[in-house]
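Lab meeting prep.
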Amino acid sequence: MTEYILPLFSSFILTVIFGRIVLPLLVKLRAAQTEREEGPASHKVKNGTPTMGGIIFLVPWIAVMCFYLPDHRNIIPVFTAVICFALIGFSDDYLKVIRHHNLGLRAWQKLLLQIAAACAVLFTVHLFTNISFDMRIPFSSFFTGGTAFIASFGVLAIPLEILAICGAVNGANFTDGLDGLAASVTAVITLFVTASSAVTNAGIAPASMAFLGCMLGFLVYNHHPAKVFMGDTGSLALGGFAASSFIIMNMPIYLIIAAFIYFAEVLSVIIQVLYFKATGGKRFFKMAPIHHHFELSGWSETKVVLIFTLATVLLIVVAFVAI
């Protein structure tokens, strides 16, 4: 029980304390958010809110994980993913801050760095664990007498895993558009990771419970109206955590169910762009990512966050039944 309770509470307390230290520093350094011009008008008041706040929960999580890494080798790839994607996000945030613009790294630069980080994560899986790249098929246990079918994709497994990682990372990044949204959705996903880790004996429960504590601690500062934003520093790390955790459990396919909000956000952007080009300027959604569509349809930020979080609660129940 201590492997669940201790990392949860220690990471929560450390995050709350660290936030009180870092937040004034971000204000002093003028690490401020610059809202995009085409964004919702209601978001203009957020200009000047400190960003790069992912540091607030990443440092405590890393500190807590240092106590678990020696005896929980399966956490190493998760640790690697969080660090790598946090560094990519930090680079992007830093460029935005010094340019006082909402554009940081170019899209192709971001993608290349994400692919490189994904390869590094998969390399650590191979180097430090006994985990294969086979994939558990959702709901297959209903047809095999209670034992889930685990499929081997051979050489295709690597590009599929990279696709899953990059998809989750960008999904988490797009989800981070409203106060508390990305942290709330990810907090629910960590509950699924913890429960599934116990079922699959993946041994990453301390990492997921610590991440849950960090999300709850960060929400102290990030709930509406947010005092700080996590920025790409935090949101890319969120996606890296989720994707690597599911890979360790041989469950990357389950990301589509449990982390459906991530992928809905990405798909809404893809649909919007393709529809815009195909119709010569018409829009499928009022605005993408899809949380902005609901905002412009009259939903408040808090309502969108609540509905998306509750939807994730239902989705992780479905995903757990599918194991």
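Slide two material, second protein:
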Amino acid sequence: MAVLGIPRNTIEILQKYDFHFQKKFGQNFLIDTHVLEKIVQAAEISREDFVLEIGPGIGTMTQYLCECGREVMAVEIDRNLIPILQETLSGYDNVHIVNEDILKLNIREAAEKYNGGKPIKVVANLPYYITTPIIMELLEGDTPLESITAMVQKEVADRMKAAPGTKDYGALSLAVQFYSQAELVANVPPNCFMPRPGVGSAVVRLTCRRDSKVGVRDAKWMFRLIRASFNQRRKTLQNGLHNESGLGLDKERIVEALEQLGLPATVRGEALSLEQFAALSDLLGPGGEDNDRKDRIHGSDQ
């Protein structure tokens, strides 16, 4: 069976099927075996593992995953790639090819069916235009996850690891920090792909937490606050939260909560740490008026 990580083999299969890259799917196929090996090594795939692969393309990474894992579900949105995948993966009996949008797939159901509901490992070469929605859906969904090892745009990798007060810091940074521990595995230059993207890439591994990094009464409510805080980055936090109609928060209550946390009324969302957002969430959420958390947060960032 042809090793697809070698450029000439990739070109051969694409020409055979007269495949044309589609910009709307952000297709860039890996053509570097060293990077492929790094991804598999970082994902720590073993014969015990069920792996969900997002964006298999022509099956380059899928072949590696099938060699190492017990079972692989490869989810590909482009129906034109399905016949190619059926050929390139024909030698494996431990792969399921699914033609679907990952954001519409019931991943929990798949985990239950193929892994008995136990945490699964996700490996992905994510289209850059939709990386953040996919990562957020995986992290915030109810699917049991052990880890996510993904190829992403370098800029997205920077955002994942950004600290408060920096330009890259935002909802993605906080979600990654809350739900996982992030590790940069490798930087990947454009010449490792076909066609070459106009930006650099990076492989990141997110090891999902069994328990949350911080205690918060309602994580979904907290992330509604976080998103509202960053929707209008130049506005103060109180204005951002007040302007988000779905939250139903008046300015007086917001300012009062900020005062309890020792924060000025003019503070912006980008200045708050995860611990401070958790504390603010508990104060502003249902029943928060009676919840005094000053002691917990004062000095949390000392």
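Talking points for slide two:
The longest strand covers residues 145-153.
The two ends are 57 Å apart (CA to CA).
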